[in-house]
Predict the 3D structure of the following.
Amino acid sequence: MSTSFADWVSTADAVRATPKKLEKHAALARYLGALDDSDLQIAARLFAGAPFPRRDERVLSVGWSALSGVLLERSGKTGGDMAESYQRHADLGDVAADLIGDGSSGGERLTLAEVAQTFDAIAAARGVAPKRDLLRATLARATAGEARYLVKIVSGETRIGLREGLLEEAIARAFDRDREEVGRANMLTGDVGETALRAKHGTLTEPTLAHFLPIGMMLATPVLQLAEVERRFPPPYVVEDKYDGIRAQVHKAGDRVELYSRTFDRITNRYPELVPPLLAIPGTYVIDGEVLAFAEGRAVPFTDFQTRLGRKNVAAELRTKMPSTLVAFDILERDGRALLDESFDERQKILRALPIVPPVIFAEHQRVESSGEALVAILEREFVAARERAITPSRSATANGFSTSGRRTPDSPTKRSRR
């Protein structure tokens, strides 16, 4: 029998109530460690703030009108009451709890399994009415506290002071596993629920990189002062320009190529002009890069590039006016060989052996082995140069700055980010 959703809510409340990491860890580990396999997967995904795994392309598609209408029905309040509550809370989940108040729920208490089944059904439903009916039936059985988190998850605003990295740490603690192994498994599976289950059963090392299953992307670590770079990461370094475009992970196998965003959305159809040159590269690969747009020989500012975003199909006129280019700066797999544990230098050697043609180009980078004041001077010079640099498709740079990170040191393996 699935455990009650109320227990999950109590744990979420405890996490939300404390700013202390160790207390968050303890509450999560205590709760997760006591769950059966099915509930463990559901609970972990909900703590990550989503109804489905990151790689799952399903969406709930419940709009504001449907959500607010169901809340008003459930609470018996008016639109004015809702507006006033939102002014106080600025959070739809808290508004839901406020409107429902101490009113009792109807019917049997919700279980984790029923919550997951509701989300599955909402994603599968076509049209506003059936989605609204499913949500209405579930909220009718929810307490104010349960409604808070149901609405948070449906609206995509699950802010309870819980980063996914902290959730990974709690999973490691719950099952006495290595933190790095938990993070790597989550990166490769794209599913914190599966990761929690693997932690429970000791199979964290089994997942491997697979085509068309995107993994977490390595992100630059911001610093406030250039001198902080050396304090956080020892030399040597690789310095490269920061690209003002759309991060993309490219998977190619056989006659299929797909581009994925940082949030694992498939975005191939937004950049159809990139597909032929990417398909022309023989063999299999997974490339990490950035998609930029060019117009009249110059990189288009991101604000203008946004006109190409969010479109399921891009008109030929817009593709001609604002053609896209893929700047490739890392490679994660080549012809069946996973490269995640290879050094940056080795990955670059493999990447730059690819027979690419425009609009696919390689990123440029510079090795820096200096330290102290010399390092700061070099970074300052490169920063200014990057900001002033005019960009053309033959010069893979941006006027947006540059990035450097200890995770980009020449002899280190890649460490993909965890949100």
Remarks:
- Residues 372-388 form the longest helix (17 residues).
- The radius of gyration is 24 Å.
- Residues 5-155 form a domain with the DNA ligase i, domain 1 fold (CATH 1.10.3260.10).
- The chain has a mean pLDDT of 88.
